[in-house]
Amino acid sequence: MMSTLSWLRRGISEIFPDQPDSSSADENLVQRLAQSDRPLRIKLGIDPTGADIHLGHSIPMRKLRSFQDAGHTAVLIIGDFTARIGDPTGKSEVRRQLTEDEVRANAQTYLNQVRPILDFDTPGRLEIRYNSEWLSSLDLSKILQLLATTTVGQMLAKEGFSERYDKGDPIYLHEFLYPLMQGYDSVAVEADVELGGTDQKFNIAIGRDLQRHFSLRPQFGLLVPILLGTDGVQKMSKSLGNYVALSEDALTMYSKLEKTPDTLLKSYFELLTDVPLDQLPENPREAQKLLALTIVTQYRGEAAAKHAQQDAIALVQGNTTQADTVPEFSLASVQFPAKLFFLVSASGLCKSSSDARRQLQGGAVKLDGEKVDDVDLTFETPESLIGKVLQLGKNKFVRFIA
Question: Which residues make up each annotated binding site?
């Protein structure tokens, strides 16, 4: 029982019980795991509201894989229906509703990105379900039945709703439906356990209560921490620029992770790797390199990770010609003469030309290891750039090719 509890507990902030008044959630869950005559159904829902998954999203996925390895069934729910509403959790304003085509395209990229994490091959270990299977067919009587299970007061107690209500900001009725629909997912797939971030506790509890309402055995909830970003201050987010995307090339991923703040090293190892915490290097620099190598290996393979490590060292030393895993940018479509700030933007290192100008003025741009801050620097022909490495900050690189 202790060994089971140990792997269950790694990377978990809270295990909350199948019964609201129970005080021994850990032991009750271990008991259900031990006594069940069938694999438990472990639910994780993801709403494909964007194209990329970052390391913060990987935490519940990794816990889902732990359950797979223990013989249980991962039920990965693609929220193609709920994504059209958008989870209001933690949002201070209404979210834009996505089209079906946007959701479908995002869902496919999500599945491609989580393949290195989950077991897609062992029979019975993974179910991929789309919640439009059951939510799109709900009639008005069923929706009214769902609405009757929860009070307005309960909804307003949810973080985000309460803040908007106090400020007098609008809350639309369709947003109240989101927790109920996510909860109904647990009814539809008969989940035994639901995984989610600590910000999902309200929604997971709604699922537990709905299961009880529909005479099903209620689920347990396993909450994982919200990962701090590479800045060590705010939660990992693409919009904040402090993220490591699962889709990034090995060099970019390695370069970001080897600069992880010392204060985050232990939590990153615990949440993002299987490295025993009592075996971490005492030297923070060695720990950073081990973290980067371990995580890149998980997603890109050992050879690519080691190659990225070698190239990262070469780039720091200014040996750009030795770094052959740098992403490439073709100059074939660029109209010359071309200003450097345009190339910084066109290559994808910056979101816009105005941002590229600011980065140049701030001294964040290097060309073949040499800092460049002249916003008017112009290249007459592509030949003078081919083979050179353009660098933004410490982690972003491209090599110019014909």
Answer: 238
